[in-house]
# Entry
Amino acid sequence: MTKIMVVEDEENIASTLKYNLVREGYDVMTTGDGRRALEIFKQEKPDLVILDLMLPGMNGLDLCRQIRQFSIVPILMLTAREEEVDKILGLELGADDYMTKPFNLREVIARVRAMLRRMEMIQSNTTSNMVAEEPGNGEAKNGANRETQNQIKVGDLLINSSQHTVTLGDRSIALKPKEFDLLAFLARHPGQVLTREMLLERVWDYDYTGGTRTVDVHIRWLREKIEPDPSRPRYIHTIFGVGYKLDITEGATPLTVAVPAKPGV
Ligand code: CA
# Structure
């Protein structure tokens, strides 16, 4: 049974969350104390943590940091104030997602499901053998994107969407699930300018009430991981006032290569 730990000191929020998660078939434990939460976490090893930012004992940020030192468990942060979102995302605490209060319960459930699904995918990928399929024949010219059997190649970037792996040249790049989804989505639309709203809608597969800063922060993280010089991006270009596009041609000419509708042409 999938275990979820809810760390929330507001009694009615904690019990509402618990009630609804239990109804969805999850095994739920709750605590309102940050320090206690860490003990419970170590004993129970939950599959996902819902974590309130403001807590007595140890605040949510510190708790998140501590958990991250030894666990990659998906963490959904709860915050009462939109201004704190910057803190959650910007500090790279390792929270996978956040929601601002008051939140819609159905949305919480949807996100919990999505996070658990992603985790399952990552785990099955790391246990299966990493087979680096050779791009083979028909290699497209200069930096054109190709998608073959779940692989997308953009310049030196090779994105494998079935194995959730990314390599840059011969170096493998560790990406967080959302970073991967974002990169894969950009790569499937080479040379196309994608607005922040579009990215939110398509990559974060639920309606976002929060700001588009989420996208900017993830783009920044991605750049730090894949760009040789993040301040002068080679792959992910900012289109001022609009959004982003992935393009290997230094932003000059958009690629016109159509990604085949069916992989493996
Ligand atoms: Ca609180």
Summary: The CA atoms of residues 32 and 258 lie 52 Å apart.
